[in-house]
Amino acid sequence: MPVVRVEGLTKIYDLGEQKVLALDHIDLSLMPGEFVAVMGPSGSGKSTLMHLVGLLDRPTEGRYFFEGRDIVELSSDELADIRSRRLGFVFQSYNLLARTNAIENVELPMIYAGVPDAERRKRALEALDAVNLTHVAHHHPNQLSGGQQQRVAIARSLVNNPSLILADEPTGALDTKSSQDVMQLFRELNEQRGITIFLVTHEPDVAANAKRIVTFRDGHILSDVPVEKAVVS
Amino acid sequence: MNFMAILKVAGRSLFRNRIRSLLTMLGIIIGVAAVIVTVSIGAGARVSVQQQISGLGSNLLIIVPGSVTQGGARTGFGGASTLTPDDGLALAKEPHVAAVSPQVNVRAQVISGGNNWQTQVSGVSPSYTFIRAWSLSSGSFFTDTDIAASTKVAVLGQTVVNNLFPDGSSPLGKTILIRNVPFTVIGVLVARGQSAAGQDQDDTVLIPFSSALQRLTGATTVGTLLVSADVSENIALVQTEATSLLERRHRIAANQPDDFNVRNLQDIANAASATATVMEYLLAGVAAVSLVVGGIGIMNIMLVSVTERTREIGLRIAVGARGMTILMQFLIEAVLLSAVGGLIGIAFGGLGSIAVAAVSQWPLLVPPEAMALAFAVSALTGIFFGYYPASKAARMNPIEALRFE
Fold first, then answer.
1. Residues 14-33, chain B: which have Cβ within 8 Å of A?
2. Which of A61, B39, B77, B233 would give a disulfide with A10, using CB separation of 3.0 to 4.6 Å?
3. Number of structural domains, chain A?
4. Which CATH number do you get for residue A101?
5. CB–CB contact B321 A76 (8 Å)
């Protein structure tokens, strides 16, 4: 069963005077263990797809099955619960809580998943260990480098053992070295834990870490190829 | 996600901004402290007034002579000399009258050995102690026999004792001179402190009124008649009875003004209480306004906080917070601010009340209901003014919130 299966997925933004067709009847499936990079120029619809797949928004048209469940039929509370337990998010700007140390940042999704205090702390430390940041567990974001902050964010995204991690330009604010570390981490999570990764980027060498590259243009899928054969343009 | 977890999240985010949290609470702190101090001032003043009124005497009516016109100038009440001890005796026979005492006041120099002191000497009857609810700390009071014989005996107030017998020796049995007339001290009154008007009630010497008339004033009329009704419900009735009795005795026609005036202390007490009540309402109104202002302060800061934390809210929604959870978090933050502010306000209000009670020497009264009410109102203020910002946070679109700069 695919983790994500969308059929005829369409998103139209109603801006009042004009309607913007952001996604035009997309068909796409992500199988468990896949590592998919989505590329395309800005405005091509890749971010919109990420928001829809991440259950942060609802499609205008079409169907979306997450792990076999038709999300159109789910209430917003049920969507929140899926986000909490099955999805992990990594953002370009990390989005860590300021004045809150690394452990507490990593604990955040578990609070909403109702994990008890003691287990929360244990799992947060495990997640920080997985991203090699145990030594800065009590540091606040402003005491961490960009790469470290992004790794804290990755620890946060995997702490509830999600089936899918959505990464929106995760290396966009990082230098080359940090970018490589972060992408290495994603590859490990994908290969060792079998977590499906859905990555949006416009950097070809970042996308090259994936196993499959989907290219978007004007709300359509332009190409969808395994990475060995990807035409990196 | 359970309530305790939300409470912790809310508490933590307030603690992260503790200075701002404290400043936000300030409005509520001041409002609640004002309410507590106000209520305690009101209650203290009321009890103090009641104590002083009841200290004047039980169910007391005071009858003073009316005014007289001398060469076109009218004196005030008490200017005329129209009340006699016989008026008092007649009044005592009326139903519902428990006791009557004339009072003849003379300011006189009192001498004992090498010490002297100017004080108020009052000629009264034995029922005076009952009417004024005033007992003796030592010795005995004079009796009806002393009245009949115009005995030269005196009962001293504590201030007079202190000034005439500074060595602390017992004044009982000693002879004092009042306007050079020797009187034997037979009793000492218990100390009573200041009156409502701020006079030292203990600065007095009591002697039989007959002795005062014969030996000090040489007059036949008394300054005042003190009348005590049997129960407080009958005060108004006794007032009417006394008025009609004295009008008959003084042969005052229906169209003539009375040559006396019956004063009902309950009226004064009621007026004082009513004043206290009006003041209380007024202060409570001001306090209520300050609570509302405090609440608006909380709403302002919460709105700023929600806007400022837009990305945080977006993130919380993205990682799985339900709308209701976000609403609860911000609502709890607002309620925590107002409730903790309320508690701090109650503490400051209590301290303020203690200070006011110490300065005014009123009894310290902070009614627990007032504290509970102030706390409840401040918590409700938090819910009321916190709901709008919280619902704004809960309704946020996570995508836009995460993009917010």
1. 16
2. A61
3. 1
4. 3.40.50.300
5. no
